[in-house]
């Protein structure tokens, strides 16, 4: 907020937005979509995941999960829009007239802009903040990713030592340390923040593809289950979310799209190794239920490769018709995904737990009356 206030006080020129569509979007509309994934905008909205992943520990989940997601996304959206608006309106008109927006190349946009406007103390503060600020996000992700690894260990697809719980604090300490090591390797390999943000955003979006199809499949499999949290417009939001996630993956541009998808598919040998150790007990069913997503990721890579030049493809499908193709293909695979479910041991376990929960709630209701 201090950055927003100081930059707005130092300069506020609304003419920087332009006076027509050609000046407002001098490079067309495609870069707007590309920036959504490639520059990490999607990553900045990622905090809502923590609310969902920690949902079992939230009081009054039927109301507070929805509230938490709405508040998280709203705060992120408002702050991001104001920050970007401030950056645009604070830019000296002389620089834009000389070289245009493509001639502006800041290593640290807000800090460099503060120096340009003569607010040196703010620039120093921003450099410090750039180091301190990620700690908040880091702390929440430490909690979430540690639990994810523990869940994977419980499913039998990673070494058992990674899911070991600390007896004193009841946290998956080994998983947290392992995630820290992986994080350091990632930061070392990707020295450029822009590249790392694009890779993380795209990988996150691939994970988002499974959410809409899974929730609809589960609703079909367990229509009478007791659900404290109910989303009333899932029939609309689920396919819409799947389509938007697919488009956002495409916006990551070739070859980032294919590189991230290849890294994810490379995890299959690890999966097959642990399936072999479990004597291929449920492999056929699991492959049958998940083959659609593997094929879809490959199809998305091909579409990215032959897509429009605006997204670094071969321009065999011109912009914006590439979006139409992605939407149609996404809806086809969405339908396949929602009909590829099967009753696993985890679903049967969830059914038993849900039945006990329903009985407990009924007993509490009777005792209160």
From TrEMBL:
This is Amino acid permease. Keywords: Membrane, Transmembrane, Transmembrane helix. It is found in: Membrane. The chain crosses the membrane at residues 30-52, 64-83, 121-149, 170-190, 196-216, 236-254, 260-277, 289-307, 319-337. One of its GO terms (molecular function) is transmembrane transporter activity. It is a multi-pass membrane protein. GO terms for cellular component: membrane. The keyword Transmembrane helix applies. InterPro entries: AA/rel_permease1, AA_Transporter_AGT. It comes from Staphylococcus aureus.
